[in-house]
Amino acid sequence: MEKKELLQKYLKEANDFLGKNLTADDSKFKAWNHSLIRFLEAEFGKDSTTTKLFSNRVYTLLVFYEASHSEYVEAFEDSLKISIEDLKRLVEEIDNENFRTTNNTKKNQNEPQLAVNIVNSNNNSNVINQIVILTNEEIIEKIEDNTFLDDESKEELMNELNKIEEIKNSSDSKSKKWKKAKCILSFIIDKGADIAIMFIPKILEAISK
Predict the structure, then answer these.
(1) Are 132 and 152 in contact (CB under 8 A)?
(2) Pair 58, 40: CB distance under 8 Å
(3) Whose C-alpha in 34, 35, 113, 203 is 20 to 30 A from the C-alpha of 46?
(4) Is pTM beyond 0.70 here?
């Protein structure tokens, strides 16, 4: 089976998961995701930007606050829809004869992997004390120095940082803050592990205040 046909197969299967009240724990989804990542690693390499785009994606809530099943379903489908759009773009690249089997990899082959502890809202303050939280100025400096981000992406990340600060300073409850933060998390995680590692502690801090 050709590359395009395989991608279309993964795309069809991804669409079939939508609207069925599933979460990231579904066994068929897990098998699909593992198979997709193995395929991408074989085609592009484990450290390629294409492979990392999918392997770094999280399909569940990152923070527990007595979340309902429907919220897990929503988080799952939000991330899956992003994967569907990314798969569509890969297929389009093949059709436009712009498809390349090599991707730019980061100079640092020992890029830290994203590891997020699932925490209970009752313990949020303890977790915040155990992780390194960069200042806004430090994050801005790292964004500006990142040679793998274009100007548009840098501006988008600056805007997300401002949104996190607004959440932190608001008087909303933790559950309301979390609802606002979910969109930011989806956006940040798609930018890769190195960006997520900087932003997620800031988001946890904002929710805990």
Answers:
(1) no
(2) no
(3) 203
(4) no
